[in-house]
Specification:
- The protein has 76 residues and is mostly beta strands.
- The protein contains one helix and three strands, in the order E-E-E-H.
- The termini are far apart.
- The protein binds zinc ion.
């Protein structure tokens, strides 16, 4: 069963919930008991991309980050 990360806007808590895919968009209750936490898109996304860290380190030599110019790092 996949794990999803949720965010509670009431107490700013992030937490993870194991649930089936067809329920992934349902609101969840946070550890503090607030209903209505929403799913975030951060954690569970290792689909088709290079391994975490691999591409980043390859782009790092020479200075600058691995953003490819998309972030606010100020250029390379
Ligand atoms: Zn909460």
């Amino acid at each position: 069963m996949p794990m999803y990360e949720y965010f509670c806007r009431r107490c700013n808590a992030k937490f993870e919930v194991l649930r089936s895919m067809d329920r992934s968009d349902d609101a969840a209750a946070c550890p503090a008991g607030h209903a209505g936490a929403v799913r975030t898109l951060s954690v569970f996304a290792p689909v088709g991309r290079t391994a975490p860290g691999g591409s980043y380190e390859r782009a790092a030599p020479g200075g600058g980050c691995a953003c490819g110019g998309a972030c606010s790092c100020g250029g390379h």
